[in-house]
C-alpha cells in the first residue's frame, strides 16, 4: 500500500505522507525500549525519521512506565510541557504552513489511564496501550486523517503470540521478546494490569527469528526479553532452558542474555543450560525483593529466602563464573525493623554484584495499595539508604577480585573523563569496563576486545587492552 511519489511523499491508503520527523521518549524497562524500536520501525515505513529535538518534531510519542511514582511524575511533567507545541505551532519551512504537531502517549500508563489522559490533556491527540504496538501505523494514519482524541487499549485475544523482531539501531545487539505479560500478581506490582496475561512465542519461531537476525542483520548478541522469561513456553511444553540450548547452535551468535527472571520458575533445565551453554552470559538477574519470609509472603512472591539462596548456590555450582544481580524493595507496607534487618542480612548472604533498590511506591489497583500502611517516607528513605550503602560495600569487595583477570567485551561506547578518552564495553557477567585505547585514533566501536582489569571499585572498572579481534569473533 506504500508508493513513493516524485515529491518524496509516501502514499499510505488515501493519504500522502511527506517526510516527517518523530520524537520519542521512552520510560521504564527494556520491554518498553523494545516496543519503542518496534514503533519506530513501523513509522519509518510511513516516511518518519527520528529526531532528538522535540521542537523539530511533527509527531511526539511518549512510551510510558507506571511501575513507580517517579516514572509517572516524569511523564506527566514532560507531557505538560508539550502544551506549548500546540499553542505556538511553528511554520513549516517547506510548506510555509503552520505545523500541526501530533502528540501521542503509549505504554503502561496509557494502557490503564488512556481515556482519562486524552480527556484531561488538551494537547494529547491519542493514547494507545501495550498490546497494540503493531497497530501504530493505523493510529498515526487516523490522526493524520483528522481524527482527534481517540484511545486504543484493546488486548490481543488470540491464542498465539507470534511476531518477527524488528530492529532499527544498526548495532550487533538485539532485544528479542519471547514472552509478554505477567500472571504473577505480586501484591505491589502494576505490571500484570498494564501488560496483561502471559503469552509465549513458540520456541521454533524464536530460533528462526534469531537465525535471521544473525544472518541478515549482523546481530551477535541477543537479549531475550519478558517480564518473567522463566515462564516461557509453559503452555506449549517448552522452556527457556530448551530455547537457550537451541540458540546455542546458531552460528555467528556469540552472546545470549535474558531478563527478567522470577525465582519461583527457575527450573533445573535452566540451571543446566547455565552449566552447558558456552554462549549464555555469566550473569543472572534474579530479583529477590526482600530478605524476610514474612514480607515475601505479603508480597505474594511464592518462595522463601532459603529457597532463593539454594537457587543461587545451584547456579554458582553450574557455572562458577556466574555473577548475580537483584532487585530490592525497601519499606514494603508495614515492614518491621526486624524484617528490614533480614534484608540487610540477605545482602550479606547472597553477595550480589549489583542491585536495583527502590523505596516502595503504592500503585493504585494493587493488593498492597489496599493495605493499611503505617510506614512513613522518612523510614522508607532511611531503609533504602541502608540497603544501598551496605550493597555498595559488598560490591566493592566482590569487584576488587576482578583485578588482574581478563574479560572479553563488545565495545559499545566511548566517553571522555578528565580529558582522557576511554572506550567502554560490558563483560559477559554484565559489568561495564573502561579502557584507554592503545592508539587514540583507532575506532573500537562494536569491536570485540580482551581487557585486563587494572582497578575495580563498586561502580567503576578500568582495564588495559590486551587483544583485539575486530568486528566479529
Ligand atoms: N518482572 C520483573 C520486574 C518488573 S518491575 C520481576 O518480577 O522481577 C522491576 C522492579 O521494580 C521489581 O523487581 C521491583 O523491585 C520494582 N517494583 C515493582 N513495583 C514496585 C513498587 N510498587 N514499588 C517499588 N518498587 C517496585
Ligand atoms: Fe510484577 Fe511480580 Fe510480574 Fe515481576 S513477576 S512483573 S514483580 S507481578
Ligand atoms: Fe514500567 Fe511497564 Fe516496564 S510499568 S517497568 S514499562 S512493563
What's the short version?
Among the domains are: 3-152, Rossmann fold (3-Layer(aba) Sandwich); 406-470, OB fold (Dihydrolipoamide Acetyltransferase, E2P) (Beta Barrel). Helix content is 32%, strand content 24%.
List keywords for this structure.
473 residues; six-stranded parallel sheet; 13 helices; single chain; 22 strands; transferase; binds iron/sulfur cluster; Rossmann fold; alpha/beta; binds S-adenosyl-L-homocysteine; OB fold (Dihydrolipoamide Acetyltransferase, E2P); globular; five-stranded mixed barrel; binds FE3-S4 cluster
Description of the structure:
The chain is 32% helix and 24% strand. With 473 residues, it is of the alpha/beta class. Among the domains are: 3-152, Response regulator (Rossmann fold), CATH 3.40.50.2300; 406-470, OB fold (Dihydrolipoamide Acetyltransferase, E2P) (Beta Barrel). Strands 5-4-6-7-8-9 form a 6-stranded parallel sheet, with helices on both faces. The protein starts with a strand and ends with a strand. It binds S-adenosyl-L-homocysteine, iron/sulfur cluster and FE3-S4 cluster. S-adenosyl-L-homocysteine binds at residues 67-68, 188-189, 191, 227-228, 260, 262, 287, 289, 327, 329, 358, 360-361, 363. S-adenosyl-L-homocysteine binds next to strand 16. Keywords: 4Fe-4S, Cytoplasm, Iron, Iron-sulfur, Metal-binding, S-adenosyl-L-methionine, Transferase. GO terms for molecular function: 4 iron, 4 sulfur cluster binding; metal ion binding; tRNA-2-methylthio-N(6)-dimethylallyladenosine(37) synthase activity. Its EC number is 2.8.4.3.
